Amino acid sequence: MAEDIDAYLIQHQHKSLLRFITCGSVDDGKSTLIGRLLYDSKMIFEDQMAALEADSKRIGTQGGEIDFALLVDGLAAEREQGITIDVAYRFFSTDKRKFIVADTPGHEQYTRNMVTGASTADLAVILIDARKGVLTQTRRHSYLVSLLGIKKAVLAVNKMDLVGWDKATFDAIVADYTQFATRIGLTDFVAIPLSGLKGENVKDKSPITPWYDGPSLMQHLETVTLDEEAQQRAPFRMPVQWVNRPDLDFRGFAGFVASGAVKPGDAVRVLPSGKTSTVKRIVTQDGDLDEAVAGLSVTLTLADEIDISRGDVIAAADDPCEAADQFEATVVWM
């Protein structure tokens, strides 16, 4: 029994992690879809299910049936109005992958909250109400997804049950969205017809859409390829967050490796001063490392005494980042 538990924990630890968001216009069914994903992936305990059933009868929007959106919309104002206001994060897992999903609001006045949720996402699930088609907020959220550098997306045409699972309606929406997405550079997306409330094409392929030969939403999320090593292939960059000086014999520079990799003996350049040195040690709480790659928090010690402060960047000596006192950017006002 203990061996089975250990094997399960090891398998779970080594599953890949996908961070994704749901976005789109108001009332497209984002919270309901996430609630359905949690329900279908068996991530709801019995007491949560009992509370959900009671809340659905009391304040739900589905006429007494289970309102899956209540699993995500926890603020009192959200439940009263039946909308999402703040970003809600939920964790769930399947046999193939772990997930962190951010449910973001669809109202225009809460767009800043959508940007917060999208800032750490690998993939965006962009919902469209099949009755309404591509709306202004759909385009706005898609543009922000592209602006934040999210390369992969799912076009989830939701509430298909309310249009009789009409293939022509689905094809028209996909064609309209494709034309817009091409202009903003968001070309790597999969279109899926589904019903978040009914669960059709969410976890498993539904026989109700014989004309659709693609994957279900869960099947796509479990198998979509992630370039997890892209940041490791980039040039080494580590912004210094703290100068670690516990005694006279140690001086290290702690930070999060933003990109690339570094090993003891590698030549580095400190910016903005431009001073160069070599890495002496890579120190962690669990001992020294032979290599630090993107995504790790480490402390570097250097072979030379260099004046380095919080906010400086330690970079690869032969490929440093550019130091400038002015830059051009597109700003999302929060």
Query: For the residues shown, what is the average pLDDT?
Result: 83
* Percentage of residues assigned to helices: 25-40%
- CATH third-level topology of the largest domain: Rossmann fold
Molecular shape: elongated
Q: Give the uncertain stretches in residue-range form.
A: 74-85
What is the radius of gyration? 24 Å
CATH superfamily of the largest domain: P-loop containing nucleotide triphosphate hydrolases
- How many β-strand runs? 14
Explain briefly what this protein structure is:
This protein is α/β, with parallel strands linked by helices and 334 residues long.
Describe this protein's structure.
It is a single chain. The protein is α/β, with parallel strands linked by helices and 334 residues long. It has 2 domains: 2-223, Rossmann fold; 231-316, Elongation Factor Tu (Ef-tu), domain 3 (Beta Barrel), CATH 2.40.30.10. Helix content is 28%, strand content 26%. The chain has helices spanning 2-13, 30-40, 46-59, 76-81, 111-118, 136-147, 167-184, 217-223, 230-233, and strands spanning 16-24, 88-93, 97-103, 123-129, 152-158, 188-193, 237-247, 250-256, 261-262, 267-271, 276-283, 292-293, 297-302, 313-316. Strands 2-3-1-4-5-6 form a 6-stranded mixed beta sheet, with helices on both faces. A 6-stranded antiparallel beta barrel has the order 7-8-13-11-10-14. The protein has a two-stranded antiparallel sheet with strand order 9-12. A hairpin with a 4-residue loop joins strand 10 and strand 11 (276-283). It is elongated, with a radius of gyration of 24 Å. The N and C termini lie far apart (51 Å). Residues 74-85 have low confidence and may be disordered.
